[in-house]
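Priority: low. Protein: Endonuclease-reverse transcriptase. Input follows.
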Amino acid sequence: MKLKGRSWNNKKLLTKKLKLNLEQLKDPVTAAAFESSVKGHLKGKDVTWPVLADALTSATKEHCPVVRKTEKSWINEPDCQDLIDQRRQAKITNFQGADYRNLCKSVKTVCRKAKRKRLAGLSAEADQSFRSGNTKGTYQLIKQISGRRSPQPGIGIKDKNGEMLYEADKIKDRWLEYGTQLFSSDLPGHTPGEHPPEALEPEVMPSEIRAAIKKLKVGKAAGLDGTSGEMIKAGGEIVVQAMKTISDNIWRTGVWPSDWTQSEIITLPKVPGTQDCSKHRTISLLCHASKVLLEVIRNRLAHFVMPQIAEEQFGFVAGKGTTDAILTIRNIIEKTVKRQDQQLWLMFDDYSKAFDTVNHAVLWKTLLDYGTPKHLVWLLEKLYSEATGVIRVEDNHTDQFPFEKGVRQGCIVSPLLFNACGDAILRQVKETLDERSGSIVGGRAIWNIRYADDTTLIARSKTKYCDSSFSLCRQYLSK
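Result:
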């Protein structure tokens, strides 16, 4: 099989990400000094994303100390760290001496006391959180007390024929092959135009960039570029002006920075010890700076797409959730039971890897049909045409492979794009059905309830409506 992976310099990815104490950036004094450092690093330079990323990283190293992160948080207590440092020095001097042995005992005693104190404090916080009705906070504290129990990957990996692979190079090649197959498309690709449409959308305003930066989440893993949301937020007005310059360049040329188009894919086993690539959950890490411009595009896109999304869609829609969808289905069931003169048939469909199989050409056509400006569609086309991914394999990465289908995981525009495409498909299905198919509620026929890709199809007769609507949905959704 001929793989589409691109040969590239892997040394950049092998650079270990520094574990810096980004909490320091919340301090107003540190944040002001950080902003001044970023301004100094940018002085006299043409603002591009690599220059801004280097300035943010350099300023962070200057103002955020490197911390030793550990799963055992109590070890970071000053008393424990002081004794651990003394023991390390004593081990270098004379690891068999009495001082070293005594320090070992002292470290164990102090760490044990710190652990008990830490767990007692967490238990008290969990109890107080439960009494105040903060369910989410309570569960988070319980997880900290009980410890993380994530599934562990198996030793080695299976190739496509089921044979075991144990060598590091072969395992990396297997993951490249799997990623290429997962995101490759048999349909002809769509190449966007090199030049933007004649009618350009208004340029991005500084107020839009400030609002997008304010919405960035903190405490999230950084992408391949190593920048985080905390760095961008702490940059203040200097970063706002720099992002305005970078965004204006993308707005005019459609050329996205390479860091913004790359995704680092992390694989997590769904089943402990699994050795099958398909039984791993993939999580993508994106550049946080790219989310600033994408948030602006998402807000402008929503004005054209959201009015087209049907009321039956409860996923990725503000003010709706799973509880609303469950309540709707429950009311339909109760109404049918009370009448006792109708049947009710429900079919629950969950399509495998639905987000990874969206056809790009259909997606762009759907957006244009909804009245989306050609310029916004062109910007997204350019982003998707350049999008690539690498899979992290232990401390290494595979070669790059392109995303030829599917919406980008972790991208804030993806939920809106998926809903647009899914709604267009079910509109085609609806045109082939009877006007009174489904359950009648308030004089309106409801024949489906959706939460993202989870679809519940509703029919009053298995022979008359159910078989036809189910088969049509499968036909359209498999395209």
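The mean pLDDT is 85. The first strand starts at residue 157 and ends at 158.
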